[in-house]
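Severity: low
Component: inverse-folding endpoint
Summary: output formatting inconsistent between runs
Steps to reproduce: submit the following structure tokens with default settings.
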């Protein structure tokens, strides 16, 4: 199983990034996919999630700026991040949860740095 996240980088405040996470070794379409982030010294927090049937959930502070989406044909989940703020700086990683087999998987992170 591999969850490969990419698309992070350095961006100025107010800018945007699109993260991608390509999954392999799982039945992607039936997994709930999510993005988490962890800033230095902080715990890892859920950013957004999308179920297998397309329902989404976001932390309230990010609603309207971040959008999660998925392409089951490409086994990929995306996180569109707009109007980025310095406090969005963190390592972002993707997560898959397969409720049928009761397993979850973590990908490696991609660094997002927002300069003021």
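Observed output (run 2 of 3):
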């Amino acid at each position: 199983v591999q969850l490969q996240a990419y698309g992070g980088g350095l961006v100025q405040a107010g800018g945007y990034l699109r993260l991608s996470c390509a999954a392999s070794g799982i039945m992607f379409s039936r997994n709930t996919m999510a993005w988490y982030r962890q800033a230095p010294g902080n715990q890892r927090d859920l950013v957004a999630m999308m179920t297998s049937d397309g329902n989404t959930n976001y932390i309230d502070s990010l609603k309207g700026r971040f959008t999660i989406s998925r392409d089951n044909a490409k086994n990929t989940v995306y996180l569109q991040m707009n109007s980025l703020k310095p406090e969005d700086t963190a390592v972002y990683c993707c997560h898959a949860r397969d409720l049928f087999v009761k397993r979850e998987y973590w990908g490696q992170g991609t660094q997002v740095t927002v300069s003021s």
